[in-house]
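>> Question from a student workshop board

For tomorrow's exercise we were told to take the sequence and the ligand below, predict the bound structure, and bring the output to class. My setup keeps failing. Could a helper post the expected result so I can at least see what it should look like? The ligand is CA2.
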Amino acid sequence: MDILSILVLHGPNLNLLGTREPDTYGVQTLNDINRLLEAEAQKLAVRLSCLQSNHEGVLVDAIHGAMGQQQGILINPGAYTHTSVALRDAIAAVNLPVVEVHLSNVYKREAFRHHSYIAPVAVGQISGFGADSYLLGLQGLIRYLRQSNS
Ligand code: CA2
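>> Workshop helper replied:
Here is what the output should look like for this input. Compare the format with yours to find the bug.
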């Protein structure tokens, strides 16, 4: 089997990580998180492509672009989690395994964050562990992919 490739997507405002709201989102920057993920990916012998966008259509295009290029998607859809039928439809259309992650525990927060349009089309969701949510999500996605291919 060829080396696994995974697309990592970060949604709107996550480029501000580490600069504001540290009590909610932690002190690590998005670059810090991408570096943590890269280190984990190297250990697990997978290839990562990381992208952040504040634009729904850019994220939809990236999901479409994963078809035939990547075997799975790790996504923090940010606020689009709670609003975006377009992201959900894109994920359903490409039929790739997706793991949804959140830095904060969205279920401890405002009611509007309790609903995810992405969760029903994801393999699973991890919420509330800060940057570790991404690491746990990556590990879960890789285990899922390796089990499905064995
Ligand atoms: O907890 C998460 O990871 C969220 O996906 C973050 C989103 C929020 O809308 C979701 O409900 C939960 C918001 C990302 C905003 O990121 C910022 C980072 C630093 C400063 C301000 C915003």
